[in-house]
Design brief:
mainly beta, 8-stranded antiparallel barrel, 13% helix
Length: 158
């Protein structure tokens, strides 16, 4: 009886140790190139420079070490002469799992800044929570956006 109880408790300790080893905080930093796929911009009547836009976009995440990921997202903006708020929902897919997040931000003087709230994840990011930042980067290309992204991901147990 004692041996079976000891074996049971050892097994429970091993399961707890294994699940704790997977838990933690991870920081992902990368460049993101995005392009509108199905995006509509509408000019507001009688308000010079006022646009409301909404639609789907796609992006590629590029890490310094060569890893890549993809991003599918929806975005809405309400801009006056190119400045104003935006928000949306993103799903990043990486080799080891995915992250879904809501973001909000603003554009001012041609520069975008914003914040992420991580809603969920799969794979290595299962049940993830966390935050992140968005910041536009110098971009020599027309028709695409270049952004610096930082995600602080917490998985269960942290």
């Amino acid at each position: 009886m004692r041996k079976s109880l000891a074996a049971f408790l050892s097994g429970v300790a091993l399961v707890i140790a294994a699940s704790t080893a997977l838990a933690g905080e991870q920081v992902l930093e990368f460049k993101l190139v995005t392009k509108p796929i199905d995006y509509k911009v509408t000019e507001a009547a009688n308000i010079e420079g006022k646009t409301v836009a909404s639609g789907k976009l796609f992006g590629v995440a590029l890490f310094k070490d060569g890893r890549i990921g993809v991003k599918e997202f929806v975005n809405s903006s309400d801009l006056l002469k190119g400045s104003g708020p935006f928000y949306g929902y993103s799903t990043y897919t990486f080799e080891d799992g995915s992250i879904t997040a809501r973001y909000t931000g603003s554009v001012k003087d041609g520069k975008s800044t914003g914040e992420y709230t991580i809603l969920s994840g799969t794979g290595a990011y299962a049940n993830a929570t966390g935050t992140g930042t968005i910041e536009s980067a110098p971009n020599p290309f027309k028709g695409v956006n270049l952004l610096n992204i930082k995600l602080v991901i917490r998985t269960p147990g942290t």
